[in-house]
Specification:
Blueprint lengths: L1 E4 L6 H11 L2 H7 L4 E4 L10 H12 L4 E3 L3 H7 L9 H7 L4 H4 L14 E4 L4 E4 L6 H4 L17 E2 L6 E3 L2 E4 L1 H8 L7 E4 L6 E6 L2 E4 L7 E5 L2 E9 L5 E5 L17 E7 L2 E9 L2
Parallel strand pairs: 1-2, 2-3, 5-9, 6-8, 9-14
Antiparallel strand pairs: 1-15, 4-5, 7-8, 10-11, 10-14, 12-13, 13-16, 15-16
Length: about 280
């Protein structure tokens, strides 16, 4: 079983809560122990505990493989670009990060940080922060500094029936994602984050369908936590685009987001379960 989280945003409390839940005996009895962690990016900015989050992830990496992709907020901090939304307190504590902290983000041969995608060919899994489209195919020649907003770290699922660019990134249709990844994998699962809301979209021979809203959430008690969960059995003849909700809501409390979200993948049979931790 793989543990998946996205958009921790320097929120150590929520990260610790997620880890507490998945280490509970009851959780392990029902879902198993996780053997790998998939981090879909944005561990930095907005929240106020970046050093603690990085330290925790480094400790976890000594026991579990961690596959990470880079998020747009991670890039913003590492490359000195400005992205709105972080409080003065958040900005101040991020300035305290040193070279040892930054070592968590691997440097590529071309001097860039991190991976834009993670591919698990055995399990037909592709992970990105925002979207899987090839930036070279969608970025205008005259994009200039805006070219950054076409990268996989900035792409986002369109809420319209068309594709467009805004300063929030390039908005893509699920059909484009399925077409792009279908050139590389068969009967695949795309995992992304970035937009802080869960989404589950399936492509079958009859078309593309959004199925999250058609799924009735279930509730279960794990220790002192109440989990709201949605389970999706993966049909081996279909393709899926699944977006993980926000795992670290600390920097978004003012917007009403207060509950951490995460997911897991089970492989026998293949199933994705999305969890929201309810404090009730």
């Amino acid at each position: 079983m793989d543990l998946i989280f996205s958009d921790i945003h320097a929120d150590i409390q929520s990260l610790e809560i997620i880890l507490d839940v998945v280490h509970q005996d009851r959780f392990r009895e029902k879902y198993g122990k996780f053997s790998k962690i998939i981090n879909l990016g944005d561990i930095l900015e907005r929240g106020t505990h970046p050093k603690e989050v990085i330290k925790k992830l480094k400790i976890l990496s000594e026991t579990y493989p961690i596959e990470s992709v880079i998020g747009n907020h991670d890039e913003a901090f590492l490359y000195g670009k400005q992205v709105s939304g972080s409080s003065l307190e958040s900005i101040d504590v991020h300035l305290s990060l040193d070279e040892k902290d930054i070592e968590f983000f691997k440097i590529n041969k071309d001097g860039t940080y991190g991976k834009q995608e993670y591919v698990d060919k055995k399990n037909r899994l592709l992970c990105v922060h925002g979207g899987p489209l090839n930036p070279d195919k969608i970025t205008p020649n005259d994009a200039g500094e805006k070219a950054w907003l076409y990268q996989k770290s900035w792409q986002r699922i369109s809420e319209e029936n068309f594709e467009f660019f805004s300063y929030a990134g390039y908005h893509y249709k699920p059909s484009s994602a399925f077409s792009e990844v279908g050139k590389r994998l068969d009967n695949f699962l795309i995992l992304c984050g970035h937009q802080h809301e869960e989404a589950v979209i399936v492509q079958t021979r009859t078309g593309i369908d959004e199925i999250l809203t058609k799924t009735v959430p279930q509730r279960e008690k794990i220790a002192n936590f109440t989990l709201e969960k949605k389970e999706f059995t993966i049909n081996q003849s279909a393709n899926y685009l699944i977006r993980i909700g926000i795992s670290g809501p600390e920097g978004y409390n003012k917007n009403g987001i207060t509950t951490p979200q995460f997911g897991i993948i089970e492989y026998d049979p293949k199933k994705v379960t999305l969890f929201t931790i309810k404090f009730v």
